[in-house]
């Protein structure tokens, strides 16, 4: 049977990973400045992660959500401790799209309203509700276009108030730093105003931290820098270091009703074991601090490269903006220098999303290769 051919593939077959490197079948190593799209948080094949999953699968790999699974509560408690956010409840699922889909559903259940506001260049996933609030017509089928949604310009608080005033908005969903869109981040004032207006008009605020969460920006959640408290926070990518897991943090004042949400695989024993190992390592190895410190180093290094016009993002969620399209540069870095990087909707922007365990020496190697590639 052929595979349903929807991905543009690089001609590389990784068979093994270790920390910030992946290896192909000839044992060539590739420096992973892309983290498998911001997924690898504590490094490929981290021993705590491997042992956590291996020990758990020897005991019990899965049972349905109809039984007690203390690992879910352990994960929720650890998440509260490491992230520093209090007074939320955790619902576990399997991916970023599912996390946002559930967040939107909770907002609609809670408010009894059905319209959602989103922003230009947003990416929230590919399931029906969230693809309808993703700013890319190419990934929406006719079937997805029946949701009541309104797209607004990022940072347009006046338009936001006009829409909220209409009284039918269940939620405002946003990425604090837009990932796929190209690393745009608004000023704190905008996030604060959005939170204030949502509250005033009875809409819930959903922070999509699927990509920016889990320490990637140097804070556990990117919104924490802006002094707001979202009603719902969606999480996924870095949460399982590659093991599929997602979740929604739901304000404690939103009451759970039996059957309101549900999933077969979400919060299974293996996913929880992976998630607990990730949080342990982020905490013990001070990976948030590492992300913060390295960003200063990256900015200083980038300042020495005249072709880089702008450094966007924060921590280890970085966009290097050039004044030319970077598709060729990315290929050169991959095939000549064995370095994985990412792209975005902004064709001039090279996206850097490495494992949070990355060190200065790896960035030095990266910038050395980049300078040669730019010649
Ligand atoms: C901000 C954001 N939200 C949601 C998603 C969707 O996550 P998933 O691919 O796990 O469904 C992504 C994926 O890139 C993302 O970057």
From TrEMBL:
Entry cofactors: pyridoxal 5'-phosphate
SUPFAM superfamilies: PLP-dependent transferases
Swiss-Prot/TrEMBL keywords: Aminotransferase, Pyridoxal phosphate, Transferase
GO molecular function: identical protein binding; pyridoxal phosphate binding; transaminase activity
Gene3D superfamilies for the chain: Aspartate Aminotransferase, domain 1 (3.90.1150.10), Type I PLP-dependent aspartate aminotransferase-like (Major domain) (3.40.640.10)
One of the Pfam families matching this protein, by short name: Aminotran_3
Entry similarity comment: Belongs to the class-III pyridoxal-phosphate-dependent aminotransferase family.
Protein name stated in the entry: Acetylornithine aminotransferase
Native species: Salegentibacter echinorum
